Amino acid sequence: MFLSSPIGGLVRSSLAGLTLAILLTSGLGCGDSDAPTGEQSQTNGATAATGDAGAGGAGAPGECVAGDNKPCTSFTTPTGTKIPLGEYGAIMDFNVGKGFENVVQSGDQPNSTMCTLFSAIFGEDPKLTTQLLETNRNGMTLDFALYTVYRPANWKAGETYPVITWGNGTCAQPEGYGALLRYVASAGYVVIAANSRWVGAGSPAPMLRALDFAAAANADPASPYYQKLDLTKVGAMGHSQGGGATVTASADPRVLSVIIFNSATRDVAKPYLVSSGDADIASFTAESMAAGVAASAVPAAGLYYHNPAGMGAIKGHLVLMLTPDRVIGSTLAWWQMTLRKDPASREWFDGPSCKLCNQAADFEFSQHML
Question: Where are the beta strands (DSSP E) in the chain?
Answer without folding.
Answer: 40-43, 46-49, 63-64, 74-76, 82-84, 91-96, 136-137, 140-141, 147-151, 161-167, 190-194, 229-239, 257-261, 272-277, 300-305, 363-368
